[in-house]
């Protein structure tokens, strides 16, 4: 057996830092001035806060949930093809189950690291946080070794076809409910749409899908400078032997000085869209502690394929393998009209990964779109759906309102999204 290769995260980070330095110095793109923390003595309160932030950056999701006073549970779910996934639960026995599914390079942590405040868990929901195969919580298999190559032969297609159905069936079995509520961010939407088009019987198991920054159609994303560079150089850069990516420690490099931290934040902004105004810089160490949580290289390649081809379709191999698998030269596109779950879409103008016009094109093709909401802030970016200082006011309050409107949820329904 070959030893699989893990792409050096430091190399990527180094590139980002370098590119950002270049942008900074050649284009004179000035970084917003934030008020410099003066060197005054830290108060007791600030000290406690700093300690708590350091702690949060190093706690697993279940411990984090427990720390903030919610009943946390860890569940293991085995998929049809043998992957053992971890789910985190903020338990509320008897309440409507709600599945929140994370995006690329993220984990269940994405929905909780910013701390609770007007949370879904406070609004009478039984919250389940999924973890897709390959991320740091879902690296186990009934017979494959996560250290071997075979384990990593999946893209987000398999997450949609195997992981989500397994998690949904598990939740329904444990709670004895017939249907769940669902929220996805980015790839959490991609995979949901894969599930509902490939296994339409799952449409009946979901009351409503709320899609934040759905990465589905991506024709506009091709103009993204980093993505373009990455797709052009992906094969030579990464090589086909690479199986796993982005499970690294940014913490050390980014945390070295104020300036490296600032450059790391700029590197993140370069990918997701720039928005200093909503960025909670104090929480950056917590973000670094939980991101990136690991993905298969094939997941990234699959996204690059849909960006380049402009088609939302399963993974494309060589012509001969495509013929063997799909009986066509190209994989047939997912049929979005088969997604009959009522779907509410949230998107934003400064999302460099999900362009508003792509989201609107997708919306038209959905089987049962019930509304779309463009976040009323022009700088709002791809990650602001989880990280923005005012995300509750800008997005979650709208979600609660939408939930309140479904006939299953009267009144002030809400959840521990964060
Ligand atoms: C993180 O937690 C582990 C134990 O869970 C501990 O051994 C380690 O020192 C901690 N690291 C930091 C940076 O706090
Ligand atoms: C929760 O939100 C309220 C209103 O925005 C704010 O005043 C309060 O400080 C927040 N609490 C925490 C713990 O973030
Ligand atoms: C992986 O799953 C098996 C059950 O199939 C279990 O015995 C083992 O402890 C798990 N390993 C890890 C690292 O969780
Ligand atoms: C997509 O599904 C709809 C509804 O079942 C069907 O009418 C249509 O022909 C399908 N489109 C394709 C391209 O298969």
UniProtKB/TrEMBL annotation:
Residues 34-44 have a biased composition (Acidic residues). Residues 34-54 are annotated as: Disordered. GO terms for biological process: lipid catabolic process. Residues 62-114 form the Partial AB-hydrolase lipase domain. It holds the Pfam family Abhydro_lipase. It comes from the Eukaryota. Residues 1-28 form the signal peptide. One of its GO terms (molecular function) is hydrolase activity, acting on ester bonds. Gene3D superfamilies: alpha/beta hydrolase. Keywords: Glycoprotein, Hydrolase, Lipid degradation, Lipid metabolism, Signal. The active site is at residues 186, 351, 382. Residues 45-54 have a biased composition (Basic and acidic residues). Coiled coil: none annotated. SUPFAM superfamilies: alpha/beta-Hydrolases. Belongs to the AB hydrolase superfamily. Lipase family. PANTHER family: LYSOSOMAL ACID LIPASE-RELATED. This is Lipase. It comes from Glossina palpalis gambiensis.
């Amino acid at each position: 057996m070959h030893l699989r290769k893990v792409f050096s995260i430091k190399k990527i980070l180094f590139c980002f830092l370098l590119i950002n330095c270049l942008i900074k110095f050649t284009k004179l793109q000035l970084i917003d001035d934030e008020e410099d923390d003066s060197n005054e003595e830290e108060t007791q309160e600030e000290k406690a806060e700093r300690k708590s932030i350091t702690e949060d950056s190093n706690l697993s999701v279940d411990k984090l949930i427990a720390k903030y006073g919610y009943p946390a549970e860890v569940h293991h779910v085995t998929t049809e093809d043998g992957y053992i996934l971890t789910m985190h639960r903020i338990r509320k026995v008897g309440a409507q189950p709600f599945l929140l599914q994370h995006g690329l390079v993220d984990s269940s942590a994405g929905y909780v690291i910013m701390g609770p405040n007007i949370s879904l868990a406070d609004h009478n929901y039984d919250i389940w946080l999924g973890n897709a195969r390959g991320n740091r919580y879902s690296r186990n298999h009934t017979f494959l070794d996560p250290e071997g190559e075979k384990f990593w032969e999946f893209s987000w297609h398999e997450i949609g076809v195997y992981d989500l159905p397994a998690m949904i069936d598990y939740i329904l079995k444990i709670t004895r409910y017939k249907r769940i509520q669902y929220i996805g961010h980015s790839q959490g939407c991609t995979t949901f749409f894969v599930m509902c088009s490939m296994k339409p019987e799952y449409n009946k198991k979901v009351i409503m899908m709320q899609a934040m920054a759905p990465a589905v159609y991506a024709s506009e994303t091709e103009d993204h400078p980093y993505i373009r560079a990455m797709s052009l150089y992906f094969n030579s850069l990464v090589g086909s032997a690479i199986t796993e990516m982005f499970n690294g420690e940014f913490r050390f490099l980014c945390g070295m000085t104020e300036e490296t931290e600032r450059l790391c934040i700029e590197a993140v902004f370069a990918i997701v869209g720039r928005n200093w105004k909503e960025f909670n810089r104090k929480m950056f160490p917590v973000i670094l502690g939980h991101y990136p949580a690991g993905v298969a290289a094939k997941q990234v390649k699959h996204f690059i394929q849909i960006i380049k081809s402009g088609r939302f379709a399963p993974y494309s191999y060589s012509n001969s393998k495509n013929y063997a698998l799909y009986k066509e030269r190209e994989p047939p596109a997912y049929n979005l009209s088969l997604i009959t779950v009522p779907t509410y879409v949230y998107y934003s103008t400064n999302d460099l990964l999900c362009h508003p016009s792509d989201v609107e094109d997708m919306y038209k093709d959905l089987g049962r779109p019930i509304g779309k909401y463009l976040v009323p802030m022009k700088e709002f970016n791809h990650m602001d759906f989880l990280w923005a200082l005012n995300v509750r006011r800008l997005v979650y309050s709208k979600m609660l309102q939408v939930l309140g409107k479904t006939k299953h949820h009267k009144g002030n329904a809400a959840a521990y999204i964060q």
